[in-house]
Design brief:
The chain has 268 residues and is of the alpha+beta class. Helix content is 24%, strand content 27%. It contains 8 helices and 17 strands. Helix 2 crosses helix 3. 26% of the residues are buried.
């Protein structure tokens, strides 16, 4: 018996396979890379497209080779020329150059000048990351990103801090080696990551100390223990963030590149 004739138009189309539908939906998720990086201030969309053509942009470690790629700004690791770009916009982090005499606290019941006075109402929920002694000046980070603040301050992440110290006396030639080997203090040994003599004049020297210790007065106590009492101490860097030419008392918001570098430093 012959089959009844049929028209293609009468046939019902089969529903798409679930796997095909999932791939289609995934392709529509996220935002175009050009738009994300333009919003982050990297450059116009055209500039970003040129960067893609030049192989300067990577996503999650892979160089982007096609235009129009979609990304998730909150999950994907996007880097330009190897430097990660932080894309979150729900938190803020500031660098401030704390003057000597200011207390590292958000408030003080004795009405002494504080970091909280300096930042005012820049953003809700700000906290200082670690502390600087009252007489120590220089770079201090302030943020409302609780996880970033926790990791930067926690000893297990070994975030390096860089200090310039003005000391009395001449610096022995073998001091760097001794400090890298470790010096015993009352509360245990301490080692520096690096040490160098920056300048010396009229019985005074300026030295740079890099270490990831966070104990109270650690730089002053360390240098005093090797016969170099500190008369002035300035922190010039926390991890990849540097004080540069910020004037005393000034505040600036970290760039997205700096935030990305910080996130990398503490494994975020």
């Amino acid at each position: 018996m012959d089959s009844a004739p049929y028209d293609d138009a009468d046939m019902e189309l089969a529903p798409p396979h679930p796997a095909d539908r999932a791939r289609s939906e995934a392709a529509e998720e996220g935002e175009r890379l050009q738009k994300v990086l333009a919003r982050a201030g990297v450059g116009s969309r055209r500039v970003v497209e040129n960067m893609v053509d030049q192989g300067r942009i990577s996503v999650n470690g892979a160089v982007v080779t096609v235009q129009g790629m979609r990304v998730d700004p909150l999950r994907d690791r996007i880097a330009v020329d190897g430097s990660r770009i932080e894309l979150r916009d729900d938190t803020v982090t500031y660098a401030l150059n704390k003057p000597a005499g200011v207390i590292t606290a958000m408030s003080d019941d004795r009405n002494r000048p504080t970091v909280g006075d300096m930042v005012g109402d820049l953003a809700p929920g700000l906290v200082h990351v670690g502390r600087l002694d009252q007489d120590t000046e220089g770079l201090l980070l302030v943020t409302n990103d609780g996880e970033l603040a926790h990791r930067l301050a926690h000893p297990s992440y070994e975030v390096k801090k860089t200090y310039l110290a003005q000391v009395s006396g001449s610096v022995p030639r073998d001091l760097g080696r001794r400090l890298r080997a470790g010096v015993q203090l009352d509360d245990g040994p301490v080692k520096v990551d690096s040490f160098r003599l920056v300048d010396t004049h009229a019985g005074q020297s300026v030295v740079e100390v890099v270490l990831h210790e966070g104990r109270k007065h650690i730089v002053r106590r360390l240098l005093a223990a090797v016969g170099l009492p500190v008369s002035r101490l300035t922190r010039t860097a926390v991890g990849p963030v540097r004080l540069e030419r910020m004037r005393s008392g000034s505040i600036r918001r970290l760039t997205r590149a700096e935030l990305g570098a910080l996130a990398d430093t503490v494994g975020l």
